[in-house]
Structures are given as structure tokens and as C-alpha cells.
Amino acid sequence: MVGAGFTTLVDYFQAYGVLDFLLPFILVFTIIFAVMQKTNILGQDAKKFNVIIALVLGLLFVVPHMLGTYPLGYDPVQVLNESLPSISLVAVAAIMLLLMLGLFGAGFTENARPIIGVASIAFILYIFGSSLGLWFGPYDVFSWWSSELTELIIIILIFGLVVWFITGGSDSVSAKDSAKAIWSGVKSLFGKAGE
């Protein structure tokens, strides 16, 4: 009975444009406003201007979607609605992986963090590209490729990485150095966190 109530509520949200207009607008408005406040592009006391610019850009993002004027397949609201659930899954998976690696010690997690970061960025780029139709998955190219094969490959890669980190032995110093080199490259590319 409760499930039917939530289904009805989601149907109302869909019918009144909450999922297609309000939620994407709030997300875009919040991100643009936060970036403008943090970067101080218009100066220190420009909060009113930042609100207006974020409001206009948020409306420019969703109004053409509501009017149906975006070209077919390039509607950013549709891309956002298709991509965000998968990106949320990648974020949860990365956090869970870091928690699991934390069981082996803080140093182990520190070494694995750059690899997880680079893999997460790659997955996010793939997700957005797939939503835009820029590329296709292996299922579309190879007829013999299945979702079970993808899961098997991912499991083998994860176990291989865990075994490689655990049994590094004398090579663990070089693994640490390579992980630090990757991490310093990522820091120089995106800047240090908190700056």
C-alpha cells in the first residue's frame, strides 16, 4: 500500500514537471551559484549578481527542454536525467571501495586513491558520452559480449589489483612511488583540494 502511495507521488511529480523542470533547474542553479560565489568572478560583494546569473543560466538550461526546442538527442536535461543515476552509482562504488581498502590500513587507501579517482573520472566521461550517443558499449560492437562478461572482467580486475597491492613485497616501494606519481599528476591537473 505504501509503495502505491510513492508511485502516485512520483507520477504527480512527473505530471507537474518537477522531474523535468524543477529538479534540473535547482541543480544547475546551485552549481553555478556555488562556483560563482567561490571564485568571486564579479567581486566580493556580488551575491545579488551571482543569484541573477545563476537564475538566468538555470532557466536557459531547462526552458528549451520544456518547449522542445533542443535538437533530438542533445537535450541537456535528458542527458542529465540519464547520467546522474549512473554517476551516483559510481560515486557510491568509489566510496565503498575506499572504505573496504581502509580495512587494510591508511597507507593502502592512500596508494589506491589516485587509481580509484582516475577510474571514476573515466567512468563519468563514458557515462556522459553514452548519454549523448558519442560512443557505444561493447554490447553494441560485439554480439558475444554480455553483461555477465563485463561483471566477470570487473571482478577479475578488482581482485587482481587487491592481490597486487597485498603481495607487492619488495616491489611495494615502486608501487607506492608509481601511485604517488599518478596522484601528483592528478593534483597538478586539477589543483589541490581545498584551494
Question: Strands, helices and their partners?
Answer:
Blueprint (H helix, E strand, L loop, with lengths): L1 H14 L2 H22 L7 H21 L8 H27 L3 H27 L5 H4 L5 H20 L5 H19 L5
**Proportion in β-strands:** under 5%
Q: Give the N-to-C terminal Cα separation.
A: 50 Å
Major beta-sheet overview: none
Radius of gyration from CA coordinates: 22 Å
**Unreliable sequence segments:** none
Q: Quaternary status of these chains?
A: single chain
Mean pLDDT: 78
Number of strands: 0
Specify the structural class. mainly alpha
List the helices and strands in order: HHHHHHHH
Supply the number of helical segments.
Answer: 8
Portion of residues within helices: over 70%
Bulk shape: globular
How many structural domains in the coordinates? 2
Structure description:
It contains 8 helices and no strands. The chain has helices at residues 2-15, 18-39, 47-67, 76-102, 106-132, 138-141, 147-166, 172-190. The chain has 195 residues and is mainly alpha-helical. The longest helix has 27 residues, at 76-102.
Summarize the structure.
With 195 residues, the chain is an all-alpha fold.
List the defining traits of the structure above:
195 residues; mainly alpha; 2 domains; 8 helices; 79% helix; 0% strand; globular
